Amino acid sequence: MTDQAPAQPANPIHAFIAQTVAQNAVVLFMKGTPDAPRCGFSSLAVQILDHVGAAFVGVDVLQDDALRDGIKAFTDWPTIPQLYVKGEFVGGSDIVREMFQAGELQALMVEKRRRARRSLRPGPEMARAPLLPRDDREVFVVPLEIRPNDIDDNGHVNNVVYVGWLQEAGTAHWNARFDAETRARWSWVALRHEIDYLRALQPGSTAVARTWVGDPQGPRFNRYVRIEDGEGRLCAQGVSEWCLVEAATLRPQRIPATMLPAFEAR
User: Fold this and answer.
1) Staple partner for 158: which of 34, 53, 152, 181, CB 3.0–4.6 Å?
2) What distance in Å separates the CA atoms of residue 82 and residue 91, rounded to the nearest whole number?
């Protein structure tokens, strides 16, 4: 009898995935690392997992083309990121977001407690839940320009600049969706801005604002804004309360029902 080498897995990439999922309670196959996601969808999934206190392992599929293609074949799921919990495939970023909004992801993680996650270094923790766009609302995107005067003595964009960006995003959305006659009749007054600062924007960075509106409350509604860097990472988020007024008199007016479809998902 001759010695024989141990049988090798038919697909070593699939074997690696299966072993990683089996050995770790929560695994996110993603683009980049938890501290430095390299796409907006992966960044969103990380933010949600961080918020619910999940101890998870992030696997960067961009380090290996075979792994990037192999995870799609392994799950028969065409997109990345992909989340596994207790050995079972949960879904991509859209499903993770929907479960989070419904409270289902929190229930799934209820027995898990945050430990030091496996990454290069601890990342910033969010004091509040990330603002997530509503499926029934248009998300309007506004490119943001970082000017030299926006940089403070600490070498990053001054906090005050973000207030202007919140107003700029709302104004751009309004101007893009309503004609000159409507804009001449109506105007908006900002009543309140609330901002969470999460990640500094440095000189030379690129950034965008993603904005959508909430439900009208008489003459008022909330406008939500996510400010993201060029890699899709959430740098700041804000909520503004706006009041509709008649331009000629500046008196508050109930938001007309005819105005709402312009803010709906397209």
Assistant:
1) 152
2) 6
CATH, range 140-263: 3.10.129.10
Point out which residues pair with 228 in neighbouring strands.
208, 234
Task: Report in angstroms the alpha-carbon separations of 23 from 16, 86, 120, 245.
Answer: 11, 9, 20, 59
How far is Cα 265 from Cα 245, in angstroms, rounded to an integer? Answer: 24
Which tokens go with 148? 């030299």
C-alpha to C-alpha distances, 7 to 4, 11, 35, 54, 57, nearest whole angstrom: 9, 12, 37, 36, 28
| Domain layout of the chain by residue ranges | 12-108, 140-263
Listed in order, strand segments (DSSP E) in the chain are: 26-30, 32-33, 36-37, 57-60, 82-85, 88-91, 140-144, 186-197, 207-213, 220-229, 234-246
- Among 34, 36, 33, 135, which residue's Cα sits nearest to residue 94? 135
Angle between helices 12-23 and 65-75 (to 10 degrees): 70
Residue 92: enclosing H or E segment and its boundaries?
Answer: none
Residue 188 has a pLDDT of 94
Q: φ, ψ for residue 128 (rounded to 5)?
A: -130, 165
CATH number for region 12-108? 3.40.30.10
Can 12-108 and 140-263 be said to share one CATH topology? no
Residue type, 166: L
Asked whether the CA dihedral 248, 254, 255, 258 is positive or negative, the reply is negative
Is this prediction's pTM over 0.70? no
pLDDT digits (tens, 9 = 90+) for 18-48: 888 888 889 999 998 888 888 889 989 988 9
